[in-house]
From TrEMBL:
Keyword Transmembrane helix appears in the UniProt entry: no
Keywords linked to the UniProt accession: Hydrolase
Domain AB hydrolase-1: 43-303
Protein name listed in UniProt: Alpha/beta hydrolase
Domain of life: Bacteria
């Protein structure tokens, strides 16, 4: 693939083929899923907002040496079919359940969720506890998140209206920064995966995917709030103790000191979450930030998966 000029936005069409995986139809929509490895329980990765399945390729490849591993793009993300509004927790978990059946991946599953994907993983476990062999939650979104945060941060983020302030397109400086950061995170990956993945991540369509979720976040959190408590399944929560470049790129007016206070709030929240089930633990991870967790510390994610597979 030819090198794009710095900050350029490549033309990306919806039918551009993914570097890995195949499409399955669920409720009339084409969804991309890639599976490899053998045995069970299968490990299934649930991406965060703005993320796609192949973002977790570096961990997925290692997991395939242990058991079946699955990465996928949920509706409205990545190479899967687009939708007007992001689906809610019930729709996402119903879709994933049907997709895994269509792909012939039997349960139970170790669900590895990141941020918004970890919220969906928790929702899946509440709805289908017998189908979940364990949960690894990286930086999970949480219905009680704001109550653990400092007042200044709550007020600052509460004053932001995503419906009114979403940009029509991403500023060029953000595009350049994202391309640079993604290039660093995926430096050791095969070019056949890295190049198309980065090109699409900095395309206008994919760049806006994460932002399109924001006006609907309260709806998702309300669903989780009313879903009920987590069942007694093995749980490992992974808490990032650092601040990454992706977060700094999109946050305005939030000092580093305030972000440090946020990290302390997360630590307390995730410790309480882990304590809510008999077999839960919260691991505090240095050298990782929210968005870049699985890129900077794949060893930690892999170890958590191994620990659950061994139980």
């Amino acid at each position: 693939m030819s090198e794009q000029p710095s900050g350029a936005r490549p033309e990306v069409t919806s039918d551009a083929p993914p570097p890995l995986g195949r499409f399955y139809e669920v409720d009339g929509r084409r969804l991309l899923l890639h599976r490899a490895g053998s045995g069970g329980p299968a490990v299934v990765f649930l991406p965060g907002g703005g993320g796609v399945g192949l973002d977790y390729w570096n961990v997925h490849e290692r997991v395939t040496e242990l058991t079946t591993s699955v990465v996928y793009d949920r509706t409205g993300t990545g190479w899967s079919d687009r939708v007007e509004a992001p689906p809610g927790c019930a729709e996402v978990t119903d879709e994933l359940r049907q997709l895994l059946r269509a792909a012939g991946v039997p349960g139970p599953y170790v669900l590895v969720g990141h941020s918004l994907g970890a919220l969906y993983a928790r929702f899946y476990a509440v709805r289908h506890p017998s189908e979940v062999a364990g949960l690894v939650l990286m930086e999970t979104d949480h219905e009680n998140y704001s109550s653990y945060m400092p007042r200044e941060l709550r007020e600052l983020r509460g004053a932001w209206d995503p419906e009114q302030e979403l940009p029509d397109e991403m500023p060029e400086e953000i595009v350049r920064l994202y391309r640079h950061l993604l290039g660093q995170m995926m430096a050791g990956w095969p070019g056949s995966i890295r190049e198309p993945l980065i090109d699409r991540h900095v395309s206008p369509e994919w760049l806006m995917d994460g932002y399109k979720v924001l006006p609907h976040r309260d709806r998702f959190l309300d669903e989780m709030r009313h879903a009920g408590p987590l069942p007694d399944v093995p749980l490992i929560v992974l808490t990032a103790m650092g601040i990454d470049g992706f977060k700094k790129a999109v946050l305005i007016g939030e000092s580093e000191e305030l972000l440090r206070q946020e990290i302390d709030g997360k630590r307390r929240l995730y410790t309480d979450l882990a304590a809510s089930v008999p077999r839960g633990e919260n691991r505090l991870i240095e050298g990782a930030g929210h968005a870049s967790f699985h890129w900077r510390r794949p060893d930690v994610v892999l170890q958590a998966i191994k620990d659950l597979l061994g139980r």
